[in-house]
Task: structure prediction
Amino acid sequence: MHSTYFLLTAYLVIWAGIFAYLLATGRQQRRLAQRLEILEQRISETEARP
Amino acid sequence: MKPLPRNPEPILTLCTALLLAAALYAVFLHAPAERVMGLVQKIFYFHLSCALAAFLSFTTACAAGVAYLVSRNLKWDILGAAAVEIGLVFTTLVLATGMLWGRPVWNAWWTWDPRLTTSLILWFIFASYFILRSAVEQRQRRATYCAVMAIVGFVDVPIVFLSARLWRSIHPVVIKADSINMAPAMVTALLASLAAFTALWVLLLQRRVRTLALAERILTMEHRLDREPALSTERK
Result:
């Protein structure tokens, strides 16, 4: 029972660590997508200028 | 503008998921429990796989550093940064799972054993890589410093690997030059875990490289757009 507890905790730590990293990188990707949208808007405004 | 390369992520994700499922099956259902340590020994399969992923990351970062210093192409800096980031995540997992294995087996969360100490030093070296990265603003200079740091930091990787062999250490050495001290079913589980984590490493690396490259392009475009009104004023 004692060693099972450590085994489960270790695997939980691994998966939680990987998912936390994926979540953080996913959030960064979403922020980048927003910045890209703003950029596209700015470019189209610049191009529309006479 | 150059188009972004085709995204291999869906295929890589599928392969990684299948390999991870196979590794979990091999570890928990195929490999027997170790006679002395019992079930807690099963931590070893993913612990070693995380270590492999970390070593792959720091080796890639070192190679990317050399490539950057030779070519001065910023794509190598992006690859290096992505590799170090992933390496740091896996080194953290190696240290955490090592501690969770050490507590029931050694009756201590941490000992200043050569393997553990050099691993912790490795973590600090590459954690400071990001401090350096955020401290230098000028793009080319930052890339140069980070390339040098990745190359110098890599020196610790073979030291970590050899530490349990060269110095007196309580850390187990399972894989030796001429043999592996494990039952065949355990070797299968280990190989499955190593394959799964290598696939996961490739998936994460290509994902981070794409994201960092996109961030770089966005930043360049933003700078160009910010300079645009000034340029039109100059033209007038």
DSSP finds seven helices and no strands in chain B. Chain B touches chain A through 30 residues (CB under 8 Å).
